[in-house]
Amino acid sequence: MSTATLDKKVPAAAIPANERPADPPSASRATARKRLLVGFDLGTNASCLLAGAPDSKDITVSKIVPSVVGYAREGLVDGIIAGNAQVLIGEEALAHRLQLRMVAPLADGIIAHRDAARDFIRRTRALVDPTGAAEIRAVIGVPANAADGAREDIRACAAGVFDRVLLIPEPFLAALGFRDDARVGQSNYVDPVTNSLFIDIGGGTTDLCLIQGFFPTAEDQISLPFAGDAVDKLIEDDLARLYPNNGLSRATIRAIKEEHSYVGARRIADVKVIIGGKQHTLELGEIIGRACNALIDRFYPALTTLIARAPSDSVTQLLENLVVTGGGSRIKGIDTVLQERLAKDGYVAPKVRLAGADFKRFVALGALKAARGAREDQWQHLLA
Amino acid sequence: MNAFPVNPSSSDDGSLQSLIRLIRRVCLLTEQGDESEAVRLERTQLAEAVRQYRHDHGPDALTEQHLAEIFMAEQRRAADAVVLAELLIPQLTGRARAEPRSAPARPADETAASPAASAEAASSRAPVDIPDFLDAMLSGEAGKRRVRFFPQSTTTQ
Description:
The complex is a heterodimer. Chain A is α+β, with helices and mostly antiparallel strands. Chain A has helices at about 25-30, 90-95, 115-130, 150-160, 170-180, 230-240, 250-260, 285-310, 310-320, 335-345, 360-375; strands at about 35-40, 45-50, 60-65, 70, 85-90, 100-105, 105, 110, 135-140, 165-170, 195-200, 205-210, 220-225, 270-275, 280-285, 320-325, 350-355, 380. Chain A folds into three domains: about 15-175 and about 360-380, 2-Layer Sandwich (Nucleotidyltransferase, domain 5); about 180-225 and about 300-355, ATPase, nucleotide binding domain (Nucleotidyltransferase, domain 5); about 230-290, ATPase, nucleotide binding domain (Nucleotidyltransferase, domain 5), CATH 3.30.420. Chain A has eleven helices and 18 strands. Chain A starts with about 25 loop residues before the first helix and ends with a strand. Chain B has helices at about 15-30, 35-55, 65-100, 110, 115-125, 130-145. In chain B, helix 1 (about 15-30) runs antiparallel to helix 2 (about 35-55) and helix 1 (about 15-30) crosses helix 3 (about 65-100). The termini of chain B are far apart. Mean pLDDT of chain B is about 65; it is low at about 1-10, about 95-125 and about 145-155.
């Protein structure tokens, strides 16, 4: 599946205060303005924005922006940052990290720093509408288990930036984004929005959610605080035990994991690393395999628990629509191992699919589809 | 004139074609915004393929200049392909919808043969309608109830 978008590398919005988009004009003036719809996946580590016109299926803007805001430190020499911008986001903030105070606006999927989140959202708007003249309506993904306070935080930060919003649970948006619209209605196609189970393996949490034509509630989902970061930690601990004082940073370990991660039977992984300025080749297959298999061991009981919660007459079809997404979907063999384990435990013809290379965009894509499908009266106004 | 083959079909060297395909994948991933996967591929498989090619054919067989030329050509291709996809896919999708479906009709008794088949048919006949879902979601937000959002069957459980 492809989002078929015209992608541009994220230049990440360096916007001096005097160039910021104007606050949205009042609703009475909004009718005269060009309207743009935005699908917004506000993520802990990275955010994705897709935008397009309401009466089209085209996607005119597609960007993935690291979710980080940088504020210029005091005493910075003029000209170090283009335009002497005081606030940068995304790649541009990361590029000037030495000159900036860096703030991650989100933690564990919800807003942790309101001011930074507001600055981040305001600047992402400028990526979609540099003139600041358009009426922007945004569907924003929220964690399915987000409390009222977390939802209110998003609304508060989006007020004065977007004209109207809708907050929709991320698992539903992921299913909507993953759905192949051209095949909906075909007899051999199971619509993921009506019957699927999504396993989203992120950095901090692994989230499993039943999507069965219902608004997902707490009983439809299980979130485990064990995911990519925990796998990194297991590898780090094993490395420290086998190779004391190896000096490898967490970032290096993550890069090694991303390249060599696998589950299932033991594989060889000869990894070249620089330790103390000298190159060494370490065989890390066992360490990496053990850590990745531990991940499956942790979420597998949650998977079977959710399958057991599905109505019995829907399970056969549900088992054909198990979808692994998030960064963890890149672990080699994860679909095969899960499928084999389910089959071994007696589940009938389980079929585990990987979201594929576009996994970072599914929530935003689903959000844009939802924005295009929403009725006028369903959009929510924001009080700035 | 470009002295180096940048079109795999014009080259009779299989390893060079593989190398160009890898470069194309890197360019496409970059074009699609998947920077980390592009970098990973470039640093692993592509680096190894270049090393192997130079080992097999000699260091002058693939100079940095040649490599840069291939990269530029593939970057142009990837950019063109993405633009084409953006332009064509909506049109093709719209055309496919406008045409009658060619899939064979399911026999009437087949859908009734098993609960699974019945469930499949039910879901495929009733794709979720987004406004209905939003209605259910907005009403569910107020009451925190489990609300079905299939079309024409909004119920509270």
